Amino acid sequence: MRGLTCVVALFVIVNVVGNAAARSKSKMPNQPIKVYYLPPSPPCRSIIMAAKVLGVELDLVLTNIMEGQHMTPEYLKMNPQHTIPTMDDSGFILWESRAILTYLVNAYGRDDTLYPKNPRLRAIVDQRLNFDLGTLYVRYSALYVPILFHGDEYNEESAAKLDEALGWLNTFLDGQAFVAGEDLTIADISIVVTITNLDAFGYDFSAHENVMKWFERTKKALEPYGYNEVDAAGAQILASFMKKD
Ligand SMILES: N[C@@H](CCC(=O)N[C@@H](CS)C(=O)NCC(=O)O)C(=O)O
């Protein structure tokens, strides 16, 4: 009986260790995750930085939307909405950068700091991501897309709307280091690309002191994960569109 107990105990130990090994193995994709991208694209930049933070290898597929490479039948079959970034993780296709960010942490995060599992902490990250998607990035685009891509004049009304959103971001940052609390999360990685663009375009956000300080903090935190070569460099490409004529 004693012998049997030992055998059972040994089986349990081997199984637990085996499962743990399988779990830690399954933390990395079987093959590099394909991401269809273009270097200046802000949502693509956030994905590339997040993957670097997670240590997940990407297979970056250059997709020049200026030349219609996102409108081919193959691309439309994969993503009928024809946007970049689009992710292909061994056949699992996903677009919308914030959905990709949450997927990457859920699937491959070694811990949950970037996207906490605690429902209330996670809800704050989600709120910030939704604020970015539905408000900040929309207002940024309303001001800058016409300037960058249609050569339009600076629109004061759109600028005031953007500044109002930056004011809200400034308030979120009252008394905390990052946009969703004391730790860097995917909400910071998503929001920082917009702020990097504003910085590259010479937008004066000095009235928003918390945003200024957070921007410096976040740049520093992301420096080892491609802030300069991915995010700042991409924003400079966009800024060069503006200076063209
Ligand atoms: N909300 C989307 C926006 C994606 C998006 O609009 N990407 C632009 C490039 S930055 C694009 O693909 N434009 C081409 C198109 O929509 O046809 C995300 O965050 O992924």
Automatic annotation (TrEMBL):
GO terms for biological process: glutathione metabolic process. PROSITE patterns: GST_CTER (PS50405), GST_NTER (PS50404). The keyword Ribonucleoprotein does not apply. GO terms for molecular function: glutathione transferase activity. This is Glutathione S-transferase. It comes from the Eukaryota. It comes from Mythimna separata (Oriental armyworm). SUPFAM superfamilies: GST C-terminal domain-like, Thioredoxin-like. Residues 1-22 form the signal peptide. Keywords: Signal. It holds the Pfam family GST_C_2. InterPro entries: Glutathione-S-Trfase_C-like, Glutathione-S-Trfase_C_sf, Glutathione_S-Trfase, Glutathione_S-Trfase_N, Thioredoxin-like_sf. The keyword Protein biosynthesis does not apply. Homodimer. Residues 118-245 form the GST C-terminal domain. Residues 31-112 form the GST N-terminal domain.
